[in-house]
Amino acid sequence: MSEIILNVSIPLDDDKFLRRECPHCVQEFKIQMSSEDLKNLAEKGIESFLTDDDNQESDNNEEITKYFCPYCGQEAPTAHWWTQEQLSYMRVYAKNIMAEIVNEQLIKPMNRNFNKSSGPISISFKGSEMEHEEPWISDEVNDMRVFDLPCCNKKLKIIEDWRKNVFCFYCGFKYEMSNGV
Description:
Layout (H helix, E strand, L loop, with lengths): L16 E5 L6 E5 L2 H15 L16 E3 L6 E3 L6 H30 L2 E3 L2 E3 L21 E5 L4 E5 L7 E2 L6 E2 L6
Antiparallel strand pairs: 1-2, 2-8, 3-4, 5-6, 7-8, 9-10
């Protein structure tokens, strides 16, 4: 099996927070990311588009890491927290990889080998190469307010006017909001 390594850049805000989206309530929030965390997360994101298996995380014989929505408290595996824009961006990368493979391994060889006349029987193949699409994602804006998570010694950003309970993204601990703060 061949390995394809890509460097996919996903924008962070000025405080190094990455936007995420809950797969249940579809609310957006942000988590603070180190460069290494972001690289690993981006690789897993592209990998999930190159496989058919929705449960690919469980194929590694590793415990599946699950995270919790800060708003609704529901949990989901690592690969389920992408925003719609991030998903579209990574789909373009995955499509470009597949197009390159199809073009190099199928279309170009068939155009070379089957468009020859060899005696009374002529076989022809007419195939067009798949087009490359330029991936694009908007810059990350500096919105939302920081919320400290003492339980895991981390921070996240939630929408400015959120006044309900907040759950830790990492362990699910519930912070009860009192007096709207």
